[in-house]
Amino acid sequence: MADRLGAVLERGQRLGFLGPAPITEHVEHSRRLVRLLGDPPPSFLDLGSGAGVPGLVLAEAWPQASGVLLDSAHRRGEHLQAACAELGLADRVTVVVARAEDAARDARWRERFEVVVARSFGAPAVTAECAVGFLAPGGRLLVSEPPGGAAGRWDDAGLARLGLSGPTLLVDGAATAAVFRREGPLDDRWPRRAGVPERRPLWGA
Protein backbone atom coordinates (compact mmCIF):
# COMPACT_ATOMS: atom_id res chain seq x y z
CA MET A 1 0.00 0.00 0.00
CA ALA A 2 2.94 2.32 0.64
CA ASP A 3 3.73 2.90 -3.04
CA ARG A 4 0.07 3.49 -3.85
CA LEU A 5 -0.29 5.85 -0.90
CA GLY A 6 2.70 7.86 -2.06
CA ALA A 7 1.26 8.11 -5.57
CA VAL A 8 -2.11 9.25 -4.24
CA LEU A 9 -0.51 11.92 -2.07
CA GLU A 10 1.70 13.10 -4.93
CA ARG A 11 -1.44 13.63 -6.99
CA GLY A 12 -2.97 15.59 -4.14
CA GLN A 13 0.18 17.69 -3.92
CA ARG A 14 0.04 18.47 -7.64
CA LEU A 15 -3.55 19.61 -7.18
CA GLY A 16 -2.42 22.02 -4.45
CA PHE A 17 -3.98 20.11 -1.54
CA LEU A 18 -0.67 19.39 0.24
CA GLY A 19 2.37 21.50 1.09
CA PRO A 20 5.61 21.40 -0.90
CA ALA A 21 7.69 19.16 1.39
CA PRO A 22 8.67 15.75 -0.02
CA ILE A 23 5.89 13.17 0.23
CA THR A 24 8.12 10.94 2.34
CA GLU A 25 8.34 13.71 4.96
CA HIS A 26 4.55 14.15 5.06
CA VAL A 27 4.08 10.40 5.49
CA GLU A 28 6.76 10.06 8.15
CA HIS A 29 5.32 12.98 10.11
CA SER A 30 1.90 11.32 10.03
CA ARG A 31 3.36 8.00 11.16
CA ARG A 32 4.94 9.78 14.11
CA LEU A 33 1.49 11.12 15.03
CA VAL A 34 0.20 7.54 14.90
CA ARG A 35 2.87 6.50 17.37
CA LEU A 36 2.00 9.38 19.69
CA LEU A 37 -1.63 8.23 19.78
CA GLY A 38 -0.66 4.73 20.92
CA ASP A 39 -3.20 1.91 20.72
CA PRO A 40 -5.47 2.01 17.65
CA PRO A 41 -8.94 3.42 18.35
CA PRO A 42 -12.14 1.85 17.00
CA SER A 43 -12.89 5.04 15.04
CA PHE A 44 -11.25 8.31 14.05
CA LEU A 45 -12.00 11.53 12.19
CA ASP A 46 -9.48 13.62 10.24
CA LEU A 47 -10.55 17.26 10.56
CA GLY A 48 -9.83 19.15 7.34
CA SER A 49 -8.27 16.16 5.58
CA GLY A 50 -7.09 17.97 2.42
CA ALA A 51 -4.98 15.55 0.39
CA GLY A 52 -5.48 12.86 3.05
CA VAL A 53 -2.73 13.67 5.54
CA PRO A 54 -2.77 12.32 8.14
CA GLY A 55 -6.10 10.53 7.60
CA LEU A 56 -4.98 8.09 4.90
CA VAL A 57 -1.84 7.26 6.89
CA LEU A 58 -3.97 6.60 9.99
CA ALA A 59 -6.24 4.30 7.99
CA GLU A 60 -3.18 2.42 6.71
CA ALA A 61 -1.75 2.06 10.23
CA TRP A 62 -5.06 1.07 11.85
CA PRO A 63 -6.58 -1.64 9.61
CA GLN A 64 -9.37 -2.42 12.09
CA ALA A 65 -10.49 1.19 12.59
CA SER A 66 -13.30 2.94 10.77
CA GLY A 67 -12.65 6.54 9.80
CA VAL A 68 -14.07 9.74 8.38
CA LEU A 69 -12.08 12.15 6.23
CA LEU A 70 -13.81 15.52 6.55
CA ASP A 71 -13.20 18.46 4.24
CA SER A 72 -15.33 21.42 3.23
CA ALA A 73 -14.12 21.62 -0.41
CA HIS A 74 -15.73 19.49 -3.12
CA ARG A 75 -12.53 19.15 -5.17
CA ARG A 76 -10.63 17.84 -2.17
CA GLY A 77 -13.56 15.54 -1.41
CA GLU A 78 -13.41 14.09 -4.91
CA HIS A 79 -9.69 13.50 -4.50
CA LEU A 80 -10.26 11.75 -1.17
CA GLN A 81 -13.03 9.57 -2.59
CA ALA A 82 -10.76 8.43 -5.42
CA ALA A 83 -7.89 7.87 -2.98
CA CYS A 84 -9.98 5.63 -0.72
CA ALA A 85 -11.13 3.59 -3.72
CA GLU A 86 -7.58 3.18 -5.04
CA LEU A 87 -6.21 2.20 -1.64
CA GLY A 88 -8.98 -0.28 -0.87
CA LEU A 89 -10.28 1.74 2.08
CA ALA A 90 -13.78 2.58 0.89
CA ASP A 91 -15.38 -0.17 2.98
CA ARG A 92 -14.28 1.43 6.26
CA VAL A 93 -13.32 5.04 5.49
CA THR A 94 -16.02 7.58 4.63
CA VAL A 95 -15.41 10.91 2.95
CA VAL A 96 -17.66 13.73 4.17
CA VAL A 97 -17.75 17.06 2.32
CA ALA A 98 -19.14 19.63 4.74
CA ARG A 99 -18.20 22.43 7.07
CA ALA A 100 -17.00 20.98 10.36
CA GLU A 101 -19.53 23.09 12.28
CA ASP A 102 -22.38 21.55 10.25
CA ALA A 103 -21.08 17.97 10.25
CA ALA A 104 -20.64 18.07 14.04
CA ARG A 105 -24.41 18.67 14.30
CA ASP A 106 -25.21 15.63 12.14
CA ALA A 107 -26.41 12.72 14.29
CA ARG A 108 -24.27 10.32 12.22
CA TRP A 109 -21.07 12.00 13.40
CA ARG A 110 -21.85 13.86 16.62
CA GLU A 111 -20.06 12.29 19.62
CA ARG A 112 -19.07 9.30 17.49
CA PHE A 113 -15.26 9.23 17.47
CA GLU A 114 -12.68 8.06 19.97
CA VAL A 115 -9.98 10.07 18.19
CA VAL A 116 -10.10 13.31 16.18
CA VAL A 117 -6.91 14.51 14.49
CA ALA A 118 -6.18 17.95 13.09
CA ARG A 119 -3.17 19.05 11.05
CA SER A 120 -3.11 22.66 9.81
CA PHE A 121 -6.88 23.01 10.29
CA GLY A 122 -7.01 26.45 11.88
CA ALA A 123 -6.20 28.56 14.91
CA PRO A 124 -6.24 26.73 18.27
CA ALA A 125 -9.65 28.05 19.40
CA VAL A 126 -11.23 27.27 16.02
CA THR A 127 -9.77 23.77 15.93
CA ALA A 128 -10.88 22.92 19.46
CA GLU A 129 -14.44 24.20 18.99
CA CYS A 130 -14.90 22.52 15.61
CA ALA A 131 -13.51 19.21 16.91
CA VAL A 132 -15.30 18.83 20.22
CA GLY A 133 -18.70 17.97 18.75
CA PHE A 134 -17.26 14.85 17.11
CA LEU A 135 -15.61 13.43 20.23
CA ALA A 136 -17.19 10.55 22.09
CA PRO A 137 -17.14 10.82 25.90
CA GLY A 138 -13.52 10.40 26.95
CA GLY A 139 -12.37 10.78 23.34
CA ARG A 140 -9.06 12.40 22.43
CA LEU A 141 -8.27 15.31 20.14
CA LEU A 142 -4.74 15.36 18.71
CA VAL A 143 -3.56 18.60 17.10
CA SER A 144 -0.28 18.69 15.20
CA GLU A 145 1.76 21.53 16.65
CA PRO A 146 4.72 23.67 15.53
CA PRO A 147 8.11 22.13 16.36
CA GLY A 148 8.60 22.10 20.10
CA GLY A 149 4.98 23.04 20.78
CA ALA A 150 3.70 25.92 22.85
CA ALA A 151 1.16 25.16 25.56
CA GLY A 152 0.42 28.89 25.81
CA ARG A 153 -1.47 28.71 22.50
CA TRP A 154 -4.24 26.93 24.40
CA ASP A 155 -6.39 28.83 26.88
CA ASP A 156 -7.41 26.90 29.99
CA ALA A 157 -10.70 28.77 30.44
CA GLY A 158 -11.65 28.38 26.78
CA LEU A 159 -10.88 24.68 26.82
CA ALA A 160 -12.89 24.22 30.01
CA ARG A 161 -15.93 25.87 28.38
CA LEU A 162 -15.70 23.28 25.62
CA GLY A 163 -15.32 20.42 28.09
CA LEU A 164 -11.74 19.62 27.08
CA SER A 165 -8.83 18.88 29.41
CA GLY A 166 -5.22 19.37 28.40
CA PRO A 167 -3.10 19.96 26.56
CA THR A 168 -0.56 17.22 27.02
CA LEU A 169 2.34 17.94 24.69
CA LEU A 170 3.87 14.83 23.11
CA VAL A 171 6.96 14.68 20.92
CA ASP A 172 8.27 12.00 18.55
CA GLY A 173 11.28 13.31 16.63
CA ALA A 174 10.06 16.01 14.24
CA ALA A 175 6.42 15.60 15.28
CA THR A 176 4.89 17.51 18.18
CA ALA A 177 1.25 17.14 19.15
CA ALA A 178 -1.10 18.66 21.70
CA VAL A 179 -3.53 16.07 23.03
CA PHE A 180 -6.83 16.87 24.74
CA ARG A 181 -9.52 14.70 26.27
CA ARG A 182 -13.24 15.34 26.33
CA GLU A 183 -14.54 15.43 29.90
CA GLY A 184 -18.21 15.28 30.88
CA PRO A 185 -21.30 15.92 28.74
CA LEU A 186 -21.16 17.85 25.48
CA ASP A 187 -22.81 21.26 25.69
CA ASP A 188 -25.29 21.78 22.86
CA ARG A 189 -23.74 25.22 22.17
CA TRP A 190 -20.70 23.66 20.52
CA PRO A 191 -19.79 24.17 17.85
CA ARG A 192 -21.49 27.44 16.96
CA ARG A 193 -22.85 28.14 13.47
CA ALA A 194 -20.58 27.84 10.44
CA GLY A 195 -18.01 30.63 10.40
CA VAL A 196 -18.70 31.90 13.92
CA PRO A 197 -15.78 30.08 15.61
CA GLU A 198 -13.39 31.85 13.23
CA ARG A 199 -15.05 35.26 13.40
CA ARG A 200 -15.51 35.20 17.18
CA PRO A 201 -12.98 32.72 18.62
CA LEU A 202 -13.27 31.74 22.26
CA TRP A 203 -9.72 32.99 22.78
CA GLY A 204 -6.86 34.52 20.81
CA ALA A 205 -7.06 36.79 17.80
Structural write-up:
It is a single chain. The protein is of the alpha/beta class. Helix content is 35%, strand content 24%. The chain has eight helices and seven strands, in the order ααβαβαβαβαβαββα. A seven-stranded mixed sheet has the order 3-2-1-4-5-7-6, sandwiched between helices. α4 links the parallel β2 and β3. α1 packs antiparallel against α4 (74-86) and α2 (23-37) packs across α3. The chain is globular. The termini are far apart. The mean pLDDT is 96.
Write the layout of secondary structure elements.
Elements (H helix, E strand, L loop, with lengths): L1 H13 L8 H15 L5 E5 L7 H7 L4 E6 L2 H13 L6 E5 L2 H4 L9 E6 L5 H9 L2 E11 L10 H7 L1 E9 L2 E8 L13 H4 L6
Parallel strand pairs: 1-2, 1-4, 2-3, 4-5
Antiparallel strand pairs: 5-7, 6-7
Task: Give the structure's gist in a few sentences.
This protein has 205 residues and is α/β, with parallel strands linked by helices. It has helices spanning 2-14, 23-37, 55-61, 74-86, 100-103, 124-132, 156-162, 196-199; strands spanning 43-47, 66-71, 93-97, 113-118, 135-145, 164-172, 175-182.
How many alpha or pi helices?
Answer: 8
Shape: globular
Element-by-element helix/strand order: HHEHEHEHEHEHEEH
Share of β-strand residues: 15-25%
Q: How many beta-strand runs?
A: 7
Contiguous uncertain segments of 5+ residues: none
Helix content: 25-40%
* Average pLDDT level: 96
Order of strands side by side in the largest beta sheet? 3-2-1-4-5-7-6
Structural class based on helices, strands and sheet pairing = alpha/beta
Largest sheet: 7 strands, mixed
The end-to-end distance, rounded to whole angstroms, is 41 Å
